[in-house]
Amino acid sequence: MAAIAEAAALIRAGECVAIPTETVYGLAADATDSRAVAGIYAAKGRPSFNPLIVHVPSLAAAERIAVFDDRARDLAMRFWPGPLTLVLPVRPDAGIASLVTAGLDTIAIRVPRHRAMQALLAATGKPLAAPSANASGGISPTRAEHVVRSLAGRIPLVIDDGATSAGVESTIVMGERILRPGPLGAEDLGLAIAVPDGRITAPGQLDSHYAPSKPVRLNAAEAKDGEYLIGFGAIGGAETLSAGGDLTEAAANLFDALHRADASGARAIAVAPIPESGIGVAINDRLRRAAH
User: How far apart, in whole angstroms, are the C-alpha atoms of residue 137 and residue 234?
Assistant: First the structure.
C-alpha cells in the first residue's frame, strides 16, 4: 500500500500517475483539477478535443457526476465494476474540470474493477480522469514497462501490478449504441455498434489510434519480406495472439504483441486475420486504427 499512498499524495499535489485497471494501464489525475488534467494532456501529447474517461469507485459516486436514465442505471448495475464506460449528461454541479469533457455536455464515466485503481480512488477520495498511459495515438499499455517506454521522464510514478487482464480498453456506450467495442460485446449488452460519423463524442474515436511507429498490414496469411508477423490460430508467426484461436487470450495479448513487434528489427508489422465476433470485434477495431 506504500505505492498507493505515494500515488495518492502525488494526485493531491496535482500530478498524474500511471496505474493499472482491468483493461489497460491508465494515466490518472484529479478530474476536478484543471491543471492536473492539463498535465495528462501534456504527458500524452493528446488533442484537447478528445475527452477523457472519469473513474469513480461506485454507482453512487457516478450518480453525483452524471445523469442516469433507467437504461444506463440497468447497465451499470449489471456490469459495474467492470470494463464498461457510459457516456451520460454531466451534472452542472459535478465539479469536473471542463478539459475532461472537452467542452461537451456529456461525460464518459466508469467504475473499474481492478484492485489498484479502486485503492487509489479510495485513497484520494476524488474522481480520477484516466486515459491510457501512453503517448497519444500510440499502442496502449498492458504492462508497466510499456508505460515506462512510452512516457519515460514525463510522469513521476508508475504503479506495477502486473499485466492487465482484459488487454483492450473498455466498451463505451452512449444511449442504445456502442461507440467503442471492448471486452463487453454487443451480445453481452444487447446493443448495436454505432456507425462512425466523424464526430468526437467520447474517448477513443480518433481514426488513427493505438498505432505503432511501423506500417501495419492486416489479414495476413504469411509474412512478407521484412515483416514481423503476429499470428492467430492456425497462422503462426514471430509470435501468436492465441495458438488455440481463443479471442479472449488474443485480446489480452494484443498490445503486448504490438509493442514487441514495434521494438523488433522488422521494417513492418503483419497481423493474421481475427474473427469478427465477440471480443474479436474490439480487437479488429484496434487493429484497423493501428493500421490507419
Answer: 30
